[in-house]
Structure prediction request, 354 residues.
Amino acid sequence: MSTVETPTQATLSNHTTLRLGGPARRFAEAGTAELLVELVRELDDAGEPLLLLGGGSNLVVGDAGFDGTVVRVANSGWQLGDNGILDVEAGQNWDEFVAATVEAGVGGLECLSGIPGSVGATPIQNVGAYGCEIADSLLSIDLYDRRTGERRTLSAAELGFAYRTSVLKGTDAGVVLKVRFGLKVDGLSSPIRYAELARTLGVEIGTRVPAADARAAVLELRRGKGMVLDAGDHDTWSAGSFFTNPIVPAADAPAVLARITDVVGPDVRVPEYPADGGVKLSAAWLIERAGFAKGHQGPGGRVSLSTKHALALTNRGSASTADLLALAAEVRDGVIARFGVELHPEPLLINCAL
Ligand code: EPU
Prediction:
């Protein structure tokens, strides 16, 4: 076990992409899966509150911080097996890994390029972008079960993947140790499914392209939306999309769409996509149409919607978590008032609430 307790490390704003969050009482780092299990077991036995930290890209931590031990998952690296099967350590930086698969001529993850955070966090909320999601290529994970104290392997089917969720979301009973992917060794991408990406690549939907071309195009699109981390650009001081795209149950969809059309007028096309059990609406579009333009500012201008994408709430440099949540509440309430649609936060909220 390696436990480090310096004041700098113990401040959670140094570990989140929003650069928000108060102090942790203790901070520890686990460099291998075995150390991670050992550390979590010890803390659980001692009844110590535990917060697992990956890349900090999907976390909103309260200004009061965390009154317990933060364990940074820092086991990294991967092994390439036969037939494109890759075993990756949970603490591995996600995009470094994706870049290496593309460079090695292995396809399947290229559309998930440029996403911040760690490999172990990706199955928890079935991370997705540009027509692909983790569920498409994940085979299984190794997990430490804090209830039984055992290590076990869970198949993709057991993880219950759906849009931005899995059985692991919202519970901290399992600690992801390793993730296993089945990728394509022919160097080609998954069939391109996202219209904007197909346009950028100049191909039809359903085409497979060299994985490196898809990665380059996705990175270009993400940069344009402020979704690639850049310390000098406050538009990227965010947790990515702050709200999930709302899925309206099929039975309610006609009434909800009619109300939206009433507000925006019959000539405006309302973005909607088929989804599990209903219709998926675009949260960014609803936010803008409810009157919150890109760059809309929250308290004191310390937080704002990104100037490049209405769905990212950003820290302009001196924000507090309270500022961010005030802006989030304003946006959520404004969208409900205008359209009757409730937006739900996508990141994990620790010691704070919306
Ligand atoms: N739009 C706006 N205003 C904006 C941005 C978008 O009106 O500022 C509308 C447009 O109609 C656009 C539509 O929203 O066509 C969709 O926008 P975009 O392609 O950017 O996708 P998104 O639905 O807003 C989702 C994911 C992103 C992912 C992109 C690309 C969620 C919650 N978000 O965003 O994921 O990168 O698709 O696939 O599903 C994240 O989860 O943190 C994340 C960044």
Summary: The chain has a mean pLDDT of 95.
